Amino acid sequence: MALFEPVFANNVGMYMKTPVPTQQHFDINVEFLNIDDRSRKQPELPSSFKFTDAFDLRFIEAAIT
Question: Does pTM surpass 0.85?
Answer without folding.
Answer: no
